[in-house]
Each structure stands twice: as structure tokens, then as C-alpha cells.
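Blinded run. Sample ID left blank on purpose so nobody reads anything into the name before looking at the predicted structure. Input follows.
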Amino acid sequence: MTKRYYFAITNKCNRSCELCSCYSEPKRNTFLSLEKFKKILPEEGNFEIQLEGGEPLLHPNLEDMIFYAQETGRCSKVTLGTNAVLLPYAYSDSGLDYDKSVENIKNYFSKFKPSFVIKPSINFYLIEKDKLHLDKCGAIWGAFKDLKSIGDYSLVFNVRIRKKPLSEDDDQWLVDELERIKLKEISNIFFYQRYGYAKDREELEEPFIIPNPVDFYLISPDGKNWGKDLIARSEGMKDLE
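Blinded prediction complete.
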């Protein structure tokens, strides 16, 4: 059976989302070392990895981790979960340069072998911080449409929405906007869940892990393996530097 490793490779983030599930913030500063990453991967058999955070694009060894996993010849899938802030966008006087951004993003991800999945985040807090966030997500989609023509590269937007009273309309405005700009069909839309900074929000439900046909393990930035306990890993990350 394939093993899947969910690596939170850092708790540092370039955003401070109010309901972050992993207590990630700019002031945090724990990074999983490349050496620990290598040791955690299985010595035999196929495996998959998901690199998340915090914000994994802040990790100085992110590309080394991906290359190492892929070069084993046994890594059947790499997934990157990111807030997409640090991707190589381009700008013009009027805002985002869409065509150049598409080209830059395509060039960045084509360095990695398929099968490769990117899961950029969309939520109220990211949009509030950067009014171009949805435009940038459109450019990511443009890049991955091109990448799909040359290999197994795929894209799913992780869209977290707020329930009342956090939002007057359960963030329906965001769902409507995604439909208008034709990103809804490639989006996984779900409510924030009751853990991390949202652990005291009684209107939210506790996380439910969908039964999965793979063995999976949740790794925190200090290299600790929390097994399948999502909440325990989150609380463990709270206590890291």
C-alpha cells in the first residue's frame, strides 16, 4: 500500500490568517531540516508527499526536498499546499501582467517532474490582504492548463469559507466570485474547521478525515510524526518556536 506523508515543513508564514489551523505566523521560525526530511521518507516502496506549512515557499530547501523525493524513483506524487503569495508573478502599470505571470509560473513548476499537484489557498483573509489574489489565482490556472498539456500536472484551489457570525453570508460572495471567474469547478470549497486558532469557535465543526486508501502520516516542522492525529499535530505546532 502506498504511504503518504503530509509534511508541515515550517510554521513560518507570510500571512496571519485569523483562523489558521496550524498556528502559523510571520513570527514563527521552525523549519524541517533537509536531513530529517530524507530520514523520514521510507527506504523502500512507493510513497507520496504533500508539502505544506506554514508557507512552504518560505523554506530554503523546498526545491531540494522535491528533487530528492522525485529522484528516488519511488515518489508517485508531490503535492504543494501554498498560499501562493511568493509565486513569480509579473506586474504592469495597470496591475497584474497576466501573460507574463502565466509564463513565469509555468517555468517555475516545469522544473519538477509529474505527477505534481498544487493546492493554492483562497480565503477572505488572503483576499483582504491582497486585492489581486484572485487575479493571481487565475494566472496559476492559466499556467497549469499549459502544464497539463505536457504532463501530469494538476491544480485544485483550497477554498476555506467562514460560517456566520464570522461572515454575514457564510462567504457566499466568495463562492459566487469563484463561479464568475470560472475557478469554482476546480475548487475544493469547505468551511473552516474547529482547530488551530479556530479551536474555540463553537459554530465550526471539528475536522473529519475522509477515509483514505493509503497509509498516511502527519509530520510537524520539528520532524515529529503525529500519525493520523490532525489536531494533535496542530497543537504541537503551537508550541514550536
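Unblinding after everyone has recorded impressions. The first strand starts at residue 3 and ends at 8.
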